[in-house]
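Objective 1b: paired records.
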Amino acid sequence: MSIEVLYAGNTPAIQQLAEQARQLVLSVQPQAHQEIETSWGGYLLFKQVAGAGNTVCWVSLHKKHVSIGFSMGAEMSDPEGLLQGTGKRQRHVKVKLPEELQKPGLRALIEQAWTSQPAAGILEDALERIREICLGLAGSQEKLSHGHPTFYTRKRSYAVYGIYSPSIAFKPDPARALSYAEDERFFPTPYLAHQGWLSFKIDADTDWELVRELVEGSYRLAI
């Protein structure tokens, strides 16, 4: 899907507002990788690395406004109170008029979203390490699901990279799940927590032996 197709069906004013929002994000991060996600009505996603899963922010079009969303918005500093939403992680800013895009606080939020990300090289290396672990397991395959590299066997997924943040999602052994609760590197996986999934943060200090252990354990539960 092209940006033009994403914009189609909206009023000229909303199309122009969405394009101005896109340009605002690119003025902060000119190297941002852009993708179109067709689910949930269509989103223009901005990622640190092509194919690496994690969406830093996005633009979505609505009848009377455009939203600029932040995957980790709940953890961001917002002194001007621009962020809306009550989810555990996501937040968004509603933009109804072009002049609202000029607010210094909005630009500061976009800058904050990008500066909080690990360096692109770290994410590229992380995805390759995860692929090496997962695709080395018998019968394991990779597919893209909702923009995230997803690893599965026998049609059951057991690991997903980059849901909302640089992280690897997995399904832990229920007997061990409680032991991760006090470890700040772990958090409930968005959309999958009710099925017992957890996510493990990926950064420059990632314990890759632990990642292998977590992924292989999830794989054994899936086969």
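Objective 1b, second protein:
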Amino acid sequence: MVMVKKSANRLKKEKEVQELSKELKKYPVVALFSLTALPARYLQRAKSRLRGKAEFRVCKSAVVERALKAAGLPESFVASGSGPCGVIMTSLGPFELFKELKRSRGQAYAKPGQIAPADITIPAGETPFPAGPVLSEFKQAGLDVKIVGGKIHVSKDKVMVKKGEPISDGAAKILQKLDIKPFDIGVELKTAFKDGTLYMRDVLDVDEQEYLRNIVSCFLNARGLSVEVAYPTRDNAALLITKAHRNARALAVSEGIPEKEVVGVILAKAQAHAGALSKLVPAA
């Protein structure tokens, strides 16, 4: 039997895999985040925000993949982390983790060659620049500018770069001069795994305000329907009683039933009818 001596590099990787897989088993939630175009300072910002709540690990892709498999995580989760990925281990729920990472994001200036994530617009209004050489730069960039009170003003909105187009060197410089940061930078959570369920980014990215509005709308619609069909519940009991009282009162007035609560209304109604009738009868 031939013994193959492992290289120091291979032994190091195997140790990393063992250590990471051991850590992964300690946490109920494991998530993967993209390392592509992630500045170190934004990763550090996320770590600082989640200090004591989550552990971040950045290793080579092969180490991460082997560690995930060794920890018994499903193939679907391992496959969801294609490309350079880091690992987050936490006791936070997937939605809470995503929300915390979203809060740690920041804005960044555009760099030449980057693809615009959306239309990048320079809005109309005053700039901080006095009349001078920068005026020519703005005009060359296609901005409609004028001098007002000694300051350069942009006369109307200008779409500097359309969504999906590369940002030119000139456009990047103008945007930076005007302190426009079109890029939202931070840790991009790709997927999370908890209790046998895989949570993809599009599921985790919840607009809480819109979600709350939808819940309120559903509740109001359901309550309205239950009142309409007279289906009593704890939430609509007062409305049903009020509606029944209002309908009974209207019926009593309509049919001339002399109940104490409506007798005044009935008499007023009778008087109004009598007054209208008297106008139709000729005077004697």
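DSSP finds eleven helices and twelve strands in the chain. The longest helix spans residues 208-228.
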